Structure to design on (993 residues):
């Protein structure tokens, strides 16, 4: 088994660090761009601290469509975005092969006026896209007759002239963030999750950045870190973050676009299928990991970024569009939704879909704040490139000649292949559990296997839907910065299956609390708030089958935890008064 | 005068209705299509949701107390024979999630902590997915009730699984094995060893102590200290024990049982005509609807948009249906005023994300939807009881009380 590699910075020149700083760079934001910069900068020998207000991949990075697609849609008006996305998609594939899975797409073309012409145009369009496919090791497009389309996906409805296939890569965005963060930490970066930066301090006279003050949102502890450079990589939060440095929020403006996805139990199709909504937008259903995802919407969003929720309206809008192409979607069992807010580049006027998916680095020197940079725009697929561009700026600033190596050195777990079946046999665990473990952790599944070797009891399944073993939950808390049940869920997909956490949340809470030396009741409180949040996200997509399960989940929660179990005072008061009664 | 009564549903509400109607001397037939919420029950016998009990006691600065129950209810419970329903104290049970919670009564097999002050409770370790003795012991020891009553919990290596496959079989199957005498003797010996080793004064195990009847009293007697189960929210063997007790009770009272599904209830002059799925029909004087709520399948959430073709649903209708045709009205909490809104929705369905789950004091739509009733009466000749009734708490004793009322008025 291969373990971690020596850092690539062994021969780097010692930084010209000013004596009064604690770190060279403070990165704010634990999304994919933030952790990408933290990793890249650490690899190039800079000392980095990263602050994340909620959790890694809490925002858009963990709630995307889960693809590092080439940006076919942008080919007409943003071809450079398509090219950079495709190129970087190829790079991500070579540094984290375990996290990628192929998603073949199918575009059915309906018979209507000038459909034949449209079909030919599409063929040409996809041919142009084929030119980019080698960059991401994708397959060439295929041109299908109506019969062939129906043979591949019998559930597709309507009169067809034919269809096109093309090829994209799926990825678990939350795992991608986690692994970047872990790698950064192993290369010396400090990563603080659940820690919010409250102020970016600047000199009164020159306006230069001198440090940040931050607060741990759980303990309330306040701290200060001196630095000369702050990177604002907070996605949709970017204007808020800029304001913490005393800049007008409009200096780091984004156009926040909310997108929701509906999650269905199991894979309903082999191909991802494209459809159009009533207003002509492209949507899709994709087999993703062990479920099916339908997405997505794109609407300007001005609500609370820490609590983005889907609505039944949005769900019906997507279902209406999808059902025209794939009517059985109505009979499928929706088991949840998720929502995120894209930090799209700002423009006043265009519709959401017409906005550029490009990214930009804003140097706030021009706003009188030297040392402060904002990363705005971007996509999951090109995060690494965006991080590289940002780190190039930092590297030059600190006079480094070290070139970027994030596209050649593997992410944690991406360095070697781990055989899931052998692992299952060795650990006497379910083969599916082993396969999922290897998907999430790559070669580092061996580290979890070691835990089980030492403590066989940890081979017990905590979440049966996914499935997730106890050892993995403990590993996520110990080595992957998980602090709550929701954090564990983001890293392992625990509680996101058909039972919605009914069977595993309390147990996971107990483990999380124990690993962190917190009181078991804190674990239960976390479990309750996780369950209530998940219930709220499932509700908009509720169907007949799931409603039944929901009533059961409610009964279960009532019986075991109480629906207001997140109010510990209540039970405390009861217990006290029951003692008084006995006395 | 003896009337012909059909009770639809064989859960707690249906059973109580049948039991009460037989006492009135009526001729009773129960029609049941299968297991529902009562069979999935946890073994906690609540009158009101326990959080509500705790919340109101706290608001008034009072101790939550056991409220008195009707004589009929006590008589029913004693005939059923699976519950402890003490009038002088609330039961306190341990949940698998790691809490101690009050309950008005309990399935005999659940361990009651109400009178175990100062106890040292042994939790045997068992290699089963839903039973983590160590974290459960830590969680329960930290519970405010346990701390207040100086109850401590200790996990120990006491073998309670006899065969390797018992790591994987369902709780119900493991419970069934404990119905057998030799198994109980084997377990007694193991627990005695464990008690000697840990100096514990009570034993808490998973939901495994019998599928036909509770073995916990017998086991406690043999071992010499209280032995009982922890509460499992849904799918506990307490549901199996209820079903076994129900079948015994139905035989004892002489009610006829038909395993079928009712499809329609129609008026036929002064009588009601009931059609069964397999084609048979019955002409009766009274019907008790006790077919359960959403969990049991008596009510079905069926939003119009789910049957939509391209854009619009075929017709506008309420988002819920009863699983049989009957001349009754459904109501649900859908709008701002939960007491008056009928079960209608927009053409595409209700704003379910705002109403599905309970919020604060407002009941969730999924728990409050049901048949509109005046007392127990849903329509002429038709009474209703249990989870199928709108705006009643989904608790065991509520179902029984409503069943008794429906049975006596039928």
């Amino acid at each position: 088994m291969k373990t971690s590699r020596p850092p690539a910075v062994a021969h780097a020149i010692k930084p010209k660090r000013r004596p009064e700083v604690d770190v060279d760079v403070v990165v704010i934001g634990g999304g994919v761009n933030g952790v990408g910069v933290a990793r890249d900068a650490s690899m190039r020998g800079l000392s980095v601290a990263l602050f994340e207000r909620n959790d890694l991949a809490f925002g858009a990075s963990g709630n995307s469509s889960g693809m590092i697609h080439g940006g076919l849609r942008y080919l007409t008006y943003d071809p450079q975005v398509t090219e950079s996305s495709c190129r970087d998609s190829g790079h991500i594939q070579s540094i984290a092969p375990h996290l990628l899975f192929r998603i073949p797409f199918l575009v059915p073309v309906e018979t209507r006026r000038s459909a034949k012409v449209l079909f030919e145009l599409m063929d040409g369009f996809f041919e142009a896209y084929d030119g980019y496919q080698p960059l991401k090791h994708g397959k060439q497009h295929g041109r299908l007759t109506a019969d062939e389309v129906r043979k591949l996906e019998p559930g597709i409805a309507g009169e067809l002239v034919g269809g096109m296939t093309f090829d994209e890569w799926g990825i678990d965005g939350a795992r991608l963030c986690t692994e970047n963060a872990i790698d950064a930490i192993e290369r010396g970066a400090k990563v603080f999750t659940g820690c919010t930066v409250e102020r970016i301090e600047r000199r009164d006279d020159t306006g230069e950045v001198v440090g940040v003050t931050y607060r741990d949102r759980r303990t309330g502890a306040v701290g200060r870190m001196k630095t000369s450079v702050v990177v604002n990589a907070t996605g949709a939060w970017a204007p808020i973050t800029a304001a913490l440095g005393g800049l007008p929020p409009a200096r780091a403006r984004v156009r926040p676009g909310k997108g929701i996805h509906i999650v269905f139990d199991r894979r309903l199709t082999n191909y991802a299928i494209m459809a159009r909504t009533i207003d002509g937008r492209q949507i899709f259903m994709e087999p993703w990991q062990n479920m099916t995802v339908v997405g997505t919407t794109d609407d300007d969003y001005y609500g609370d970024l820490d609590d983005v929720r889907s609505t039944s309206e949005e769900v019906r809008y997507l279902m209406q569009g999808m059902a025209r192409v794939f009517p059985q979607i109505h009979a499928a069992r929706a088991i949840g939704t998720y929502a995120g807010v894209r930090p799209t580049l700002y423009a006043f006027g265009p519709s959401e879909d017409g906005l550029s998916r490009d990214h930009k680095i804003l140097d706030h020197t021009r706003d009188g704040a030297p040392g402060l940079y904002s990363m705005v725009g971007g996509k999951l697929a090109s995060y690494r490139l965006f991080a590289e561009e940002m780190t190039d700026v930092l590297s030059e600033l600190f006079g480094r000649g070290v070139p970027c190596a994030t596209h050649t050195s593997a992410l944690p777990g991406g360095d070697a292949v781990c055989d899931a079946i052998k692992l299952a046999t060795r650990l006497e665990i379910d083969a599916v559990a082993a396969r999922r473990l290897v998907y999430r952790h790559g070669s580092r599944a061996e580290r979890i296997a070691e835990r089980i070797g030492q403590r066989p009891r940890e081979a017990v399944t905590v979440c049966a839907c996914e499935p997730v073993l106890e050892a993995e939950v403990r590993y996520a808390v110990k080595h992957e910065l998980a602090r709550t049940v929701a954090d564990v869920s983001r890293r392992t997909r625990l509680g996101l299956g058909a039972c919605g956490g009914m069977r595993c949340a309390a147990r996971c809470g107990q483990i999380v609390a124990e690993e962190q030396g917190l009181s078991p009741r804190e674990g239960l409180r976390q479990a309750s708030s996780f369950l209530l949040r998940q219930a709220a996200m499932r509700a908009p997509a509720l169907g007949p089958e799931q409603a039944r399960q929901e009533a059961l989940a409610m009964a279960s929660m009532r019986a075991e935890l109480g629906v207001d179990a997140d109010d510990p005072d209540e039970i405390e008061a009861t217990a006290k008064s029951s003692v008084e009664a006995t006395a | 005068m003896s009337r012909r009564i059909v009770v639809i549903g064989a859960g707690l509400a249906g059973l109580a209705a049948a039991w009460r109607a037989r006492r009135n001397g009526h001729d009773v037939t129960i029609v049941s299509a299968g297991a529902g919420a009562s069979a999935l029950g946890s073994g906690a016998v609540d009158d009101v949701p326990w959080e509500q009990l705790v919340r109101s006691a706290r608001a008034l600065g009072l101790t939550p107390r056991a409220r008195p129950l009707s004589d009929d209810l006590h008589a029913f419970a004693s005939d059923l024979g699976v519950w402890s329903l003490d009038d002088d104290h609330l039961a306190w049970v341990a949940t698998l999630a790691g809490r101690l919670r009050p309950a008005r009564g309990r399935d005999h097999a659940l361990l009651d902590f109400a009178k175990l002050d100062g106890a040292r409770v042994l939790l045997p370790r068992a290699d089963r997915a839903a039973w983590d003795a160590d974290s459960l012991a830590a969680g329960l020891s930290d519970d405010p009730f346990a701390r207040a009553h100086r109850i401590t919990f200790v996990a120990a290596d006491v073998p309670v699984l006899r065969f390797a496959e018992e790591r994987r079989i369902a709780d119900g199957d493991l419970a069934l094995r404990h119905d057998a005498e030799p198994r109980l003797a084997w377990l007694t010996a193991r627990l005695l060893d464990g008690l000697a080793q840990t100096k514990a004064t009570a034993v808490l195990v998973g939901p495994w102590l019998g599928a036909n009847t509770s073995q916990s009293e017998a086991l406690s007697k043999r071992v010499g200290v209280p032995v009982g189960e922890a509460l499992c929210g849904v799918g506990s063997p307490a549901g199996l024990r209820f079903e076994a007790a129900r079948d015994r009770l139905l035989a004892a009272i002489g009610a006829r049982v038909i395993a079928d599904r009712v499809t329609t209830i129609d008026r036929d002059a002064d009588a009601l005509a009931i059609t069964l799925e397999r084609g048979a029909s019955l002409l009766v004087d009274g019907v008790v609807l006790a077919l359960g709520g959403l969990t049991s399948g008596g009510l079905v959430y069926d939003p119009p948009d789910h049957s939509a073709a391209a854009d619009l649903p075929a017709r506008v209708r309420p988002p819920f249906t009863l699983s049989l045709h009957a001349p009754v009205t459904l109501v649900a909490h859908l709008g701002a005023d939960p007491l008056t809104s009928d079960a209608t929705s927009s053409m595409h369905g209700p704003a379910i994300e705002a109403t599905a789950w309970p919020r604060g004091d407002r009941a969730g739509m999924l728990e409050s939807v049901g048949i509109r009733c005046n007392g127990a009466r849903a329509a002429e000749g038709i009474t209703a009881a249990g989870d199928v009734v709108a705006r009643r708490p989904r608790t065991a004793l509520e179902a029984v009380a409503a069943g008794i009322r429906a049975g006596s008025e039928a």
The CA atoms of residues 1 and 26 of chain B lie 8 Å apart. Chain B has a mean pLDDT of 92.
